[in-house]
Amino acid sequence: MSFTTILIVLVLLIVVYVVGVYNGLVVLRTRIQEAFSNIDVQLKRRADLIPNLVETVKGYAKHEKEVFLNVTKARTSLMSAKSLPEKAEANNQLTTALKSLFAVAEAYPDLKASSNFQELQQELEDTEDKVAYSRQFYNSNVLDYNAKIQMFPSSILANMFGFKSYEFFQTANEDREKVTVKF
Question: 22: domain range?
Answer without folding.
Answer: 3-164
